[in-house]
Write a structure and sequence with these properties.
The chain has 294 residues and is α/β, with parallel strands linked by helices. The protein contains eleven helices and 16 strands. A hairpin with a 5-residue loop joins strand 1 and strand 2.
Length: 294
Amino acid sequence: MIAKIRYFAKTTVPTFLGHPLWEGKRFSPFLRFAQLQLSYALGRHGSPQRWINGLALPLHRGDNGLTGNFYLGLHEFDTMAFTIHLLGAGDLFLDIGANLGSYSLLASGVCGARSIAFEPVPTTAKRLGKIIAINKLDHLIDARQLAITSPANANQPLLFSTDQGCMNAFVDSSYPGSTTTTAVSTLDLQCQGLAPTLLKIDVEGYENDLLQGARQTLTQPSVLAVIIEGQTPAVNRQFQELGFVDIQYDALQRRIQPHQRHSANRIWIRSDQRQSIQARLERAPRREVYGRPF
């Protein structure tokens, strides 16, 4: 209990107070936090909570990504708002390392885009499927229980942790926790004949491996941008070689800006499409979450 209180004071409180969407109304995320904790105390685990655009989030303790979105509206505000402002009906979104599908829900449930959500952990993939069904998005979201990796690793199933929540990743036989074997593929194999617009990549340190099997996909002119969590010199060099430039997005002003500060996620856009991407962002419909426009 003491550890949880310390985490709340050190991490959660600054996140709530510093979120750009809630300036002038800082109490709102705290009220939603209290609402969810009361629901848990009453034994209502998995009860759907209303989110943006009428989407439902069936929340359980430990659903860090989903609960963060319930509290804050858009937990990863800049990149989630970029996703919503960039995509429209008819676009294809690739959610690689989907976990419980926050980004796919936004792409398909808010924007009307088609999504392919790749999630390798069986229990997580099963819950992802249920969340998609609850929100009646089966016709737009194609959930695939697959790990996406390099061609060198795609010939046989690999070992994956199952006890790290949204941090599950490839492990070896020395891993002390619970594991499972999972089917693997490359992005190029999965995307043959497809024309994606936006990719989100969150594969817990295996970004460089994934990109080695994604170069055909990333050279498609349809690909306007990539949101990626892993930021290493090797990963950054691959994007630069493919003609991408890293940017930051001011979601409230809808402006692309040069990349200046460190953040958990980085946005790469196709450099020769900068003007058309900016135009897309500007003309996207105004959205609201919990009454706050962006």
